[in-house]
Structure formats: structure tokens, C-alpha cells
Fold each of these.
Amino acid sequence: MNSNPPRILIVDDSYSVAESLKAYLSTRDYSVDSASSGYEALRLIRKHNYDIVVCDIEMPEVSGLDILETMRNEGISKNVILMTGYQERDYYIRAIQLGASDFITKPVEAEQLLKSVQSIMDKDGRLFGKDDLLNNLDDVHFNCVINPLRYGGYSITAVMGPFFYKHINLPQDKMNSIILCADEMLNNAFIHGVLGLTSVQRHSQSGELRDLIAAKLQQPHIASRRIRFELHINNSEECIHVTVEDDGDGFDHESWLQRLAEEKDTNLEGSGRGLRMLLHLSDNLHFANGGRKVRVTHYYNSHQHSVE
Amino acid sequence: MSMIQIDNSDVDKELGMNINLKYEGDRALMSIDGFLNSDGAHLFQEKLDEVLKSDARMLDLDLFQCKNISSVGIGKLLLFYKDFIGKGGDIEVVRSSSTIYDLFAMLKLNQLFPVNLE
């Protein structure tokens, strides 16, 4: 995940400023994108894993400070350099509180920007340490076995998600997809694999459903079932696999996939939506063990999709 | 034996969710901020139930700050939609992030109600 050149996003509502800075940094072996509005910038920031965002402060609708604040609110801790003509003390204090990495006065001189970028990259290099561990191992496996009697009391994705966000160096949208896939797969394993709930049962009122689940879990053959969860970070093949396996009856995944492929209109019923989400969110979907075992794969740099 | 302590303090917000609901005349304005997965689906249902019981005839959904929605969340929305149009109501997604826009297009929800990007 660290072999590519540093990625930089230049954000300025002046097309000529953004393009000239982009052209200059590109000649210095940085991979540079540009955005001409705050909305476009936020979309790119969520999608790509930039090392540094260089952002004009004065832009219509979404300002540079709004971008910085949104990034921090969403837990994106990447470096932000603000290009500003402002001198107000309150503005600097707010930007520093939000963790701005540097300020450059407008009009920006390209060499001044390059110095700031290099200084930040050097500092990041010196800080290389425990937070980068997961990104620098060839192979990492997280495994756990879930007892369904305790499944309702906690959420694997809520507990492990923040850890992965912090330690796996992938764009936010990609991480969101991985976490959502894990959530879908665990939920499916619990509802279908362990409990074997019918469609009608799943759509009963929440109090009724809670009682039904409690009653099901009283049955020894259901209580003895387990859900096995694995997250495999495969840095050498540049992908992450999420695998969930349950002890249920399995399902005919081939006919379900066929059915989803033939579906033309909006499906208002609940059946198959989770499977459709997995197809949409992952690069590869693989079934084994009669549908009891499901694995999704997300490649770091691929948008190809396949089903096995 | 030493224990590894995981400090998630600056990233806990990644998986959080907040729903803001207000009313303007016969319109309900609901904005969802964060990750609507199975953990947050019950809160979403509570808010939708509230809209269903109100006098609102239009639900404006602002999903611009919504990072993603799981199938459980989509299921809650569709159950609400069936009940809401049954009493003469309608839904519009007034703003959405590109992730949500793509998801709704994939599920063909834009055939049921308008879905705007931003």
C-alpha cells in the first residue's frame, strides 16, 4: 500500500491556479489530482487515499475550512495545507484546532508549496511506526468465533471497524464498503444461517421479532451453532478478504444469483437484498460449503467484479 | 503478559450515526449523518414510525452526509415507503453522496422516488 508515489489533491475554484499547481507538483514525482469545488473535493477525498490535500480557503458554498472540518468529523486525519489570504487570528486558531498541517499565503508560489509538501512528507516518514504496522506486513489474519447467544449484545464491525479505519491505509469509501460487507455477512449469518428466520418472521414488529429470536436461541441445536469471521489483509496481493461462515443449512446461492441477474424492476420485498449489496460493494464474491461460507474480496486498486 | 491497548478515540466517529428530524408544515425533513448499518437500523425505524404517525405528506431525505446504508436500513426505508404512499405520502432524496446515489440506482430505488446527487 506504500509503494505508490505520494498522492496530492489540489482544491481551488480557480481552474488555472489548480491546474498550474498540479502541473508543477506532477513534475516532482507526485501523483496529483485537482478539484474546483468543495463538493468535488470531498467526493475525491472519500474515494482516494490522498497523503496531502492542498486547499484554497475562499471558495463558494464549501470553504477550505468546511472541507477540513468535514474530514475531521469523518475521522479522516490526512494532512491539509490551507492556501489563504486571511490574516484573522480566530480563523488560524480554528484551523489549527482542526489539525491543519500548514498555511501558505496567496498568491501561492509553486516552490513554496513544494517546500511545504516535502516538509510534511519528511515528517510523516519520520513518524513511520506502529500505526503503519498492518500496511507493512505481507499477511495479516483476524479470526473470531461468535456465539449467537451473545451476538445481540455487541457488534463486531462497531468494535473492530475503528481499529481498521485507523490502521489500514485505504480510502474511506473502500473501507466503508469493507465494513458494510462484513456487517451484511454477519447479519445474514445470524438471521439466516443460525436462526433460519423466514421472510415473514424477519418483517414482524421489532418487539415480536426480539421475542422470536430469544425463543429460537433457547433451542439447543440453534444455540450450539457458531459464526466464524475472518478478515485477511493480503498486502502481497493487494487485497482484503472478509469471510463469514455459519453452521446453518446453507442456501442455493447459484439460483439466487441467477434470480438477481434477471430482476428488472425494483424489489420491494426483503429477499435477496443483502446478496445484491454484497455483489455491488465487493470486487469478488465467492461461495463455498453449500452457501454457508461467503467470502468477499476488495482489491486496493481494482474496480473489476467477479462471482465464483 | 502485556496487553495491547487500542486507542480508537479519534476514529470512533467513523461508525457512528445521527438522525435529525424536523417538520415544516406538511413536510418532514430527515437528515442522516454517518453509517446506517444494522446497529443503527432500529433508530431509523423509530424516526420513520414517527413520520408515519405525523401529519407529514412529504419526506425529504438528506443523505449527503450518509456514508452508507446496509440492506437492513434499505429494508426499513422500503417498508416505510409502502405504508407512507398508502396514506398519500411521498419521498424525495433531496441530496445524497455519490456512494448513496450509486447504491440507490443499483437497487432501482430511483424508479420509486426522486434521488438527487447533491
Amino acid sequence: MQTASIRSDDVLEADGSIKLRKVVLADRLDMLGMEDIALKLTSLTAIKPLPVILDLRDVSFLASIGIRNIISSARALDQKGGRMVILLGNNELVKASA
Amino acid sequence: MAPPQPDAPTLSVQPSPLELRRCSEWLAERCQEEAVPPGPTGKLDLCLNEVLANLIDHGGAADVNCPVDLTLELADCGDRGLATPTIVDAGPAFDPLGVSRGPLPRTLQEAEPGGLGLLLVHRFMDERSYQRAGDRNVLKLGIYFSKDP
């Protein structure tokens, strides 16, 4: 059973500053999975006021603890002046959970 | 509430995060054996996960260090099947179905990051019942599924 994973890609401005950040979560966002990635998710999405795309299309299982972490990050980002867009794709279970 | 059938598949797990994965694997195998479609299997997996996570976080089951017993029953309801997991724990009396839920948030700022697990159980399960039986909590859930492929 695959646990959660997280990776990110930044789109940069000409001066090297970050224009857009894409964060991709994958596999199983349950209690154990979130223990593995929660800190990195927060550091990538909730520290700087950036436009963030959070891609959940490869998530196979989204438990409430995962939703909770995403909401917390989105709220923190919003308070800093950033914005988060979430990609859900065609994963019916994840769409229904979210 | 009728007790689970004696021959129904049963699993005992310790209330710990690591055991959630074992529970999910057990459930997936049982559902595959019984030809429960992937959609309802995923919803059962999610709801069992939420109930067990709730027991770990709030139910006190971890404190008493007693296993949580899971049973999965399958019933034939004509053109549909009914999958019924039962979760039994020895924690303090707690009816998760009796927890009141507020209205759904309309904005990010209204969204409270908590209480979502039981909301998912209410959303995904067609049948839900709870009773205190002796010193145990007995939670029974149910989801109908089409038997057509």
C-alpha cells in the first residue's frame, strides 16, 4: 500500500522570483501518509504569499486529516495574501470527499 | 441492532495509526472476494478509516489498549448487495452519530478544520446505527451497491 508523496515545481519570473508554485500530492493521504508530508505541505504552501496550484489528481485516498491539513494551509496562505487553486481531476472518491 | 453473524469475517486491530493500513488491506481483500465494486469499497475504506482515526484521537480506545474488532457482513438485497461493517471498541461510551453538525461552510474562512471525518461517514454510508452493549461501543454502518458489473 503506497503512502503519500509530495513534490513541487516553481515557475519563475525573469528576476528569479517565484511566479507560481505547483505542489503535487499523490497516493494515500491517511493518518500515516499525512505524518510523512504535513510539514512539507505547510512549508511549501503556507509560508510565502504565492499563487499555489495544489494538484490532487494522483491522490488515491483522501481522509479527513488530509482535508484538514489542506484547509489549514489554504487559510494560512489566504491570510498572507496568497491564493490556492485545487485540481481534483476525475477521481470520484476524492472529489466526493473534498 | 442484530449482532454480526458468527461466520462473518472479523479482524482485531490495535487503535494505532499503523493498524489503519492493515484494516484497509483486510477490507480490500474481503470486498474483492465478495465482488463489491471499487466505488463502494473505497467509501467503506474511507469511513472505516475515519471511525478508527476518531477512536485513536478522541475515543479513549488507545488508552485502554484493547483491540478494536471489525466485522464485515454481506447481504443479498435483490438487485443490490449490502456491505455492513461493524466496529466494536471498549472505550468510554461515545455515539459518533450523535455529534451535531453545523451547516457546511460557504467560504474558506468559515471552514473549520475539524469534524470532517464523521461528516464523510454521514455522506457515504446508507445505514448507520450505534448502541452501547455492556462496556463496548458498537457502531454498524452499511452501504448498498449494484450487483451489475
